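Record type: ASSEMBLY
Status: queued
Input:
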Amino acid sequence: MLRSLCAEWRKTRRRFDGLLLLLVAGTALLMGVGGAPDSLQELACGYSAIFYTLPIVHGLVMPVGMAALCSRLWDEETRSNTAKLLFTLQSRGDFFAAKTLLGLFDLLVLAGLEAVGLLAMGRLYAFTEALDVGQLVWLLAGGMAVEAVLFAAFTLLQLRFGSPVVLLGVGLGCSMCGFFLAMLADIGGMAAPVLYAVPFTWFLPLSGMRMEWDAAARRAVYLPQPRQYALLAAALGLCLLLTLWGRHAVAGKEV
Amino acid sequence: MQNVVMTSGLCKAYGSRTAVQGLDLCVPYGSVYGFIGPNGAGKTTTMKLLLGLIHPTSGSIRLLDEELTPQSRLKILSRTGSLIESPSYYAHLTAAENLQLVAGLKGAEAKDVVRVLDIVRLTPDARRKVGQFSLGMRQRLGIAMALLGWPTLLILDEPTNGLDPAGIQEMRALLAEMPRRCGATVLISSHLLSELEQIVDHVGILNKGRLLYQGPLAGLQQHSRGDVALRLLHPALAAPVLKSAGLAGLAREERGEVVLPPLKEAFLADLVGSLAAAGAGVVGVSCRSRSLEEIFLSLTKADGETGVV
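Status: finished
Output:
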């Protein structure tokens, strides 16, 4: 297993996965933060606003981001036809596990980059709101769980079709669909039940914040919402199921 | 002699199409075994079966004195090197990095990378990205990967595919010296017998998934004798003798000689005696040797008609 992991690590050389992660995290943060806060009120709820908008942006960015990440990890094996060599050198289980662990490591790095970026934004704009570490951890955990589901699903697609074009196409479709549903859910709770039926939109129900419009003060008010631990567990369960399915597909694959 | 590869009744079917049927392969230790057959004969399928890349429909495989099972597979394959169809490589990595990656998975020492680079004459290009390599260089890199970790058995599937004549010559020289330099048994496939006849000592001829001949290369030539040419003083007197021997319709005349199809030695001896007794004046008997290519073609063409070697 360790050998397989080392081999996967060696393959990352000159593959610039880090740049891709930086691009995805940067895009999500910039879209999530939007413009610079221009009032004391906005500075007073700076972190809360990001905790609320970031899951919506995740719904748009992450399907494409995960498709790109997954295709970088798997497509080189398809393009170079390396399976017939690798499967004689290591067990298929180890090969798949190493790829999956590297993917999870990438997700951790992505979450880390987002956390660092978020703190940097807070410093840059001098948010007056104190950072709620619990909310930050929940945001990252919920995001990672859904990203892991997406990653596992795209792995299956890659194993089935062996084409990055299919992955990116599906990723783009998921992004559009996710963002559309998130917007509908945002407008008076429309389509909210649908969000639960579509796993790649679980970013929103897993969000720790909700927004209400204070018409009198003409400003948005951000309020913590109950954390949906059951949904988080469901996301992790689904991810596990898809991963086992992928492992089974690799184990039975004739090359 | 012990066999490094032994299969028994090996079959592989894809739906209703049978790619390999009832294959009993025996590759002796220390040999360079040429696995020859036309395109689609089942060579690659057999090699993939030997490496556990595909699962047999029925039959068993013994490699390096051990039964190949899902449990024993990796242990056995740690002592083999392979190149199937086309070389596998990561284009964004250098040749040395590719080899280090494979060496790491094989558990080979890092210095082994230097050794195999030297064998395949890629040392000057070790730090170049493989994406910039020519096809021949990639093939050599594939061979180098197979050689990592001092394998006891090398399984190479058409390693000269896509190479130009100079590249084929170079690859042939490289493979011919493998047993001496690395002490490995080599199982190598090709659809051209002429390509391998200079380097192999054993051959297996495969067609439509069935083994038509297996054994030493010399045996193949001996087993498949060529036409017999008789130089006679009085050819006209030979006609009744040939007719009584059942060869009347098979004999033909070429440049003053009576040419007969391949005959068994005892039958030929009797025939020569009868011709001499009839006064035909036998002044010369020669067996025309057929090239291996002709033998291969006659074997693969005969398959399905008579099956006679």
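Annotation: The CA atoms of residues 147 and 182 of chain A lie 16 Å apart.
Annotation: Chain A touches chain B at residues 3-4, 6-7, 10-11, 13-15, 76, 79-91, 254-255 (CB under 8 Å).
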